[in-house]
Design goal:
Oligomer: single chain
CATH architecture of the largest domain: Beta Barrel
Largest sheet: 8 strands, antiparallel
Strand order of the largest sheet: 7-6-5-4-3-2-1-8
Mean pLDDT: 78
Number of domains: 2
Number of helices: 5
């Protein structure tokens, strides 16, 4: 083979090799394009479920921390008028109710309504414990009270419209209750006959 012909073949081989390499590179670029392409999400695109869940959890936690709840009253008190303590001082107070006190308000149930009463007033809930020389059918009770200014209503049953009094604190710390025309006889005697003295 002549030298000229040998060089021609080598030139063709190089040309073919370069062409093949270009084709290969082009194929490689085309095949890798889908993997390297990046699609930018539009502004305002929908958040992912994970983001929504995290946001919901945060909102729920915030709501829980800012929502205050009022504890339910126990037993029968749950159906009574809601407590409104107002400025009426919490405390334990004592008073003695005689038969004459009951007669003064036309309460003739002496055996059951006279005696020594220890009242507890706390955060809109009242209670008393009663003792006497004779046996008592109901020596204790509890309910709620609601204060509005210098007026207070004591509730002793679910259908009780409220036993109405005005009230004030005397200089010795005792509570003075003044019954109103609508106040029932027992309540008028028990709270309105004498000041309730604070129990040390």
């Amino acid at each position: 083979m002549s030298t000229h012909h040998h060089r021609t073949i080598r030139r063709r081989s190089v040309t073919v090799g370069i062409a093949a390499l270009l084709v290969a590179c082009s194929s490689t670029k085309t095949a890798s394009s889908p993997e390297t392409s990046t699609t930018t999400a539009p502004v305002g695109a929908a958040t992912t479920p994970a983001t929504v869940a995290a946001s919901t959890t945060t909102e729920a936690a915030t709501t829980t921390s800012t929502t205050s709840t009022t504890p339910a009253l126990p037993g029968k008190l749950a159906s009574y008028h809601a407590p409104v303590p107002g400025a009426l001082p919490n405390g334990t107070y004592a008073v003695d109710i005689a038969d004459a006190d009951l007669a003064a308000v036309h309460d003739l149930n002496f055996a059951e309504d006279h005696g020594h009463f220890v009242w507890t007033l706390k955060a809109g809930v009242w209670s008393f414990v009663q003792t006497a020389d004779n046996a008592l059918q109901n020596p204790s009770d509890t309910g709620t009270y609601a204060v509005q200014g210098d007026h207070v209503k004591f509730y002793g049953a679910t259908d009780d419209p409220g036993q109405d009094f005005t009230w004030l604190v005397n200089g010795d710390g005792s509570l003075q209750f003044t019954y109103q025309p609508s106040t029932q006889q027992f309540w008028a005697a028990a709270l309105g006959s004498h000041p309730l003295m604070p129990v040390p």
